[in-house]
Amino acid sequence: MGIQRWEIRPLEVWAKAKEMRAKWQQSIDDAEKEHVLLAQGNCNWAVGFPALRVIEDNPVGAMMGYRSSQFSRECRAAGEILGWGREICGYQLNCWGAMYLGYQMDGSKFPMRDMVVPFPDPCDQHTKRGQAPMDYSNIPRWQGDSPLYTGPHDPERDATMIENKVGTTLDIIADIERIYGQIFDDEKFIESINLAHRVREYAAEVCLSMQHIPAPLSQKDLYSFYTLGGLTKTDPEETVELWRMLRDEVKWRVDNNIAAVGTERYRWIEAHPPPWYFLRYYRYMEKYGAICIGSQYSHMMGGPFEFKEDGSWGPRVPLNSWGERPIKTREDALRAMFGDDARGHNFKVDEVIRPYAICEFAKAYKADGAIMPLWRGGVGCTVTRKEQGLRLSEIGVRVLHYEGSQPGDRTDQDETRLLDMLDVWMESQGLRKLED
Amino acid sequence: MITAGIDVGIENIKVVVLRDGTVIASGTARSGGAGRGKAIEQTWTDTLKAAGISATDITKVVATGQGKGDVPFANDSITEPLADARVALFLYPAARSVVDVGADQIRVVSLDEHGAITEVVLNQKCAAGIGTFLRTVARRLGYTLDEMSRIGGSSDNRVVVNDACCVFAELDAINLLHDGVAWQDIARAIHRAMAVRINSVLSDKVRPAKDTTVLIGGVARNPTLIAALEERSGINFMIPDQPEFAGALGAALDAAA
Amino acid sequence: MTREYWKWPESRWTLNDIDWRKANIITAGIDIGSVSSQAVVLCDDKLYCYSNNYTSPEIGDNAKNTLDRALETTGLTIDDIQYIVGTGYGRDNIPFANATANEITSHAKGARFIFGPAVMTVVDLGGQTAKAIKLYERDRIRDFTVNDKCAVNMGYGIEVLADLLQVPIEEIGERSLSDSEDPEPVSTTCNTFATTETMGLLREGMPEHEVLASHLFAVAWRLYALIGRISPEKEVAFTGGLAKNMGIVKRLERDMKMETSMSDYDPQLAGAIGAAVVAQEMLASR
Amino acid sequence: MHRFKEVLDNRHEYAKNWKARTGGKVLGYFEPYTPEEVIYAASALPVRLLSRHEPDDMTDRNIYASCACARDIVNQVALGRFDYVDGITYAEACQWMRHAFISSQYFQSFSYTCDIFVPDYVDGHRSKDVMYSEMKAFKKSLEEWTSNTITDEALDHAIDVYNTNRRLMRQIYELRRADNPIVSGAEAMEMVLASQVMDKEDHNRMLQEVLKELPRRSHAGYPGPRLMLVGSPTSDANLERLVEELGAVVVIDELCTGSCYFWNEVIPQEDRLLALSLRYLGKPHCALKDNNWRRRPAHILQLYEDFNAQGVIIAKQIYCHPHGTDNPHIWKILRERIYPFHFLERDTTVPEREMKTRLEAFINLVEPVRVKLRG
Ligand SMILES: Nc1ncnc2c1ncn2[C@@H]1O[C@H](COP(=O)(O)OP(=O)(O)O)[C@@H](O)[C@H]1O
Ligand SMILES: Nc1ncnc2c1ncn2[C@@H]1O[C@H](COP(=O)(O)OP(=O)(O)O)[C@@H](O)[C@H]1O
Ligand code: SF4
Ligand code: SF4
Ligand code: SF4
User: Whole-model pTM above 0.80?
Assistant: First the structure.
């Protein structure tokens, strides 16, 4: 029996994405020269401050693991020498290892942070993330919470939790204004929230389009755009435009059955980021005509999704929907932002306390299989991963677990073994390589 | 029709020659390191000689095992679970699961009523190397594998070693040794700890059924380990005569199919 | 019988230049390790004889046999030895020892005997564990660290590797050094992972010397992170059997910029020598 | 004194007897942030689910790379050791414990489960609002489950019992400040551990008896150097025992299963739930909750000095990330003051010789006694 082959075609919007990426890089390089405050963390409201730049060690650490295993190893050793354990998130090991060493991958001085404004996340390693720079150079830190709970819905609990987040953030903003003498620009912040929402709407459409057979994009494409989703900080209008274009093109691809993988005959999902230094495994799976159609993690850019009452799968309408309630003040904007994160509605919560939620995702996207990492470093990456696997196999989705240290740390990653396991797994499902 | 299967494991190479469903010759050798190519060649020619046939008599050669790519004369190769499934169903048509415990890897293959594979579970890294560990530990205690297995079986002492992985088990074993604990008791403790580890792989995802599970791989030659594993898991394994050749036989069967 | 690649050569030796009958102080040190056992005899401040062999599973007789081998051909008997100190994993199983010494202490003292009194950082690379020791004021211990559970299985792991790869254990180090650049190391945390990964590399067609390089590079990294914890001096004295594996020591020199102390003595003897030195001190303090 | 160890070793029997005696429900909890007083006031018995190592081939299917502490609990549940536990609750702290909370439900069905969110930043002025709201929700759900109304009187009684327990435990710990402590580290640890699996009124009674007997205890000889134990929680006193066998004495610990469990009391106020919220937020910081304003390093140093320790053993569970992340700073502050410390990783079994070598060398380092003569 012949294999169905779909037409493939490069994405046109790539050109624009590339151009934007270059600009973004430039802006980062320029920022080095400007005298801005550097905050460790990740917060959407930072745009409101005229001279505050946030860097999350996630991308920094991931990039290091990806670019130079030698440097990442040095960083790791620097951290281990000071007492870090192997169970620590590899992004941190990389990033703070460089801080201990005092220099970055390219040999330049490590940019010390001026403050820590951590991104509240259910992952404990996220919580502890601000610890290293804070302990190392005695800088202030503002830790927020990431409240969640299981069990029946309790509006009172929800409200307190959201209010806690809104209130804490208001305090932090006030603190920063007071300490550093910068004035927070509400208008800019509100605008950015509105724009972010539009990006998210387009992104949600893009994500939904992955349900189509053949899938118009692959997980790798999603990742490339994923990073551009958070760039509203540099050129908001342009980002929105990019996402609109992507949405349109994807729509066109769906209508015309243009595939990301021409031989698509097997659809798999994953959980959590892949090993950034070993993206080759996507390509390898394509040899079997197997395409990765995303993960709860990559689809997060479209916001939280859920099955609707009519059985369709779609983005959840936020608790404090932007559409329904106009955003006028700083507080409104924060509430809109955090309302989204309320319990049971974001991917992290699903990962951490609703392991079965991945089944909904698998069903919606007609997945045949799931490939899931088990990381030794970083609890948030691995918590409930095996539970998810069990739940998936209960509903007939085949699951492959592979082991490693962490997406940004290749220490325990056995690449040969992973490829071997892919062969074993695919052949045991009756599939053979189409090409070699 | 004559076919052959060759299973290149991390520790051992196994060759089986099959004529119309009957094994006419088999051979094995250490697979070693860089010298593996030569060892494969050698085992192959030796086995053919024992069978009294020449390579041209053979319709098809299929390779399997982690080193299946290193067999230049193979006509095809299949991944290990396929070979496991083939041989299990050939020897025991009622089989629903196959457990293969080799030098490095543990595999659990579940089958449906038509013999199709429904799930494959591979060991986690911390459960790797059990076969090799048992072999080197025997050597360290000054025994052959058979002896160690027998001696371990003769103990009824309940000392335990850590069951998290081979390394931890070994640490505890050395500790006991220097504490003056009798060897047979240590041997037994080691076998039991390894049984716990293997059973943990069996417990993953789909538990093999009590009476329809085949156990193959070199470690299935170890009666004390099997006893411990059966006790721990509650499974009565079906074990072929030469379980270490099962993978190669599976490949030969595949070649004949 | 096929060759046993994992076996390292056992040895025994006597210094024939001196007559033990003329010595004032004769002490012995016995190091019963997880893999190997050594017995040494010191006549005054000279190493007179030693033996170095596998630790036999016959724990009860092991220490005696080891000492007997050292004394073979010397005419010296156990009764001529004034003081015997045991050390190592099995130090409690030396019925004839007058006292025992902790491994950390004995390796520190042994290293100073072997490499000279300037030694301030000692790293023992043994069968199971690695220990990094920092000294001050002659031989007082300022700090020490031992590798934790998931990083053990040092020398013994190499024996298993030699067996799997069918490369003689004494050659593993040399063979791994034929290229000046190392490939990516295999897992640097756990030896079980590292071994599986190494076998995988070989299977993928990586040449043997590169595979070995990859493995030993990983061991060296593991050690580097361990040694770093005690803020080592630039010069480090390596003791223990694995110090004979040049693939590890050279990498620590080349890539981690450590300077290694040199000596003609067999570094594997350090523990036993240290114990014999302790024996001398005990005699002196009596 | 040995009675504490007995209860600890037979904790399942203890709880079963308690149930038979009172007809009450047992609520298992995972983390020390669980407001036990509320449970107690609902006439249920809060029992900390403590790990115990048994050969484990059940948990791999559910958990990966977890510390033995959390993993063993799941194993215990899988083996049915906690069959008497009616409900479980998890007060947000370490994520591995959350995982244990989730996975346990896979192996045993509980008539009640509840998670309580505890802020990551425990000291903030807004933290108490969340904690308070969670307390209220917890109280409500407990009332539903037990069909008992939790009255203010019941809460007052519970607070009183718990505060008494804390005070008595502090008295025991105070005894360890003596030059020659009459309570060993292992004994003290067993007392705290036992308190977490017992009805506190029983425990109080036992403590009062012991406190009466103790002064009559004869002092042994010089106990050896005084050590402090810092690190991941554990459920036994094996390490303390080993150290004390080697000729040193553990005079104080900073473990969440040890001193941190009872260190601070509830300061009564009109709103009982608020008083409780503040008590739990005000606990000595665990490694995970020590954010923004660091309190843990100062607390460790304070204990070190108060108890006149001479060295610190930092024992971390393999895969314990909160301590893995916090350790660098703890090492740093100890180094700055030249307080000797030794770091070790432990899991379910301790290869004794290995550990002995290290501990002995450390004890020698703290107080050089050189070599031990035999006989
Ligand atoms: N006679 C025996 N008694 C006990 N165990 C044995 C015996 N022969 C082989 N084994 C075990 O089998 C292992 C090798 O298994 P095998 O399936 O040949 O490995 P692989 O295919 O991975 O190379 C050895 O490491 C040893 O533990
Ligand atoms: N001649 C040698 N060449 C290379 N490696 C050696 C040699 N001799 C011993 N070794 C290594 O040293 C290890 C034993 O180290 P040793 O310090 O004697 O162990 P321990 O004292 O802990 O028992 C062996 O496992 C082996 O890897
Ligand atoms: S989720 Fe994973 S990658 Fe993210 S902080 Fe936690 S451990 Fe690190
Ligand atoms: S030493 Fe054992 S437990 Fe640790 S990582 Fe290796 S195999 Fe796993
Ligand atoms: S705090 Fe540490 S020991 Fe406790 S559950 Fe978490 S990881 Fe395990």
Answer: yes
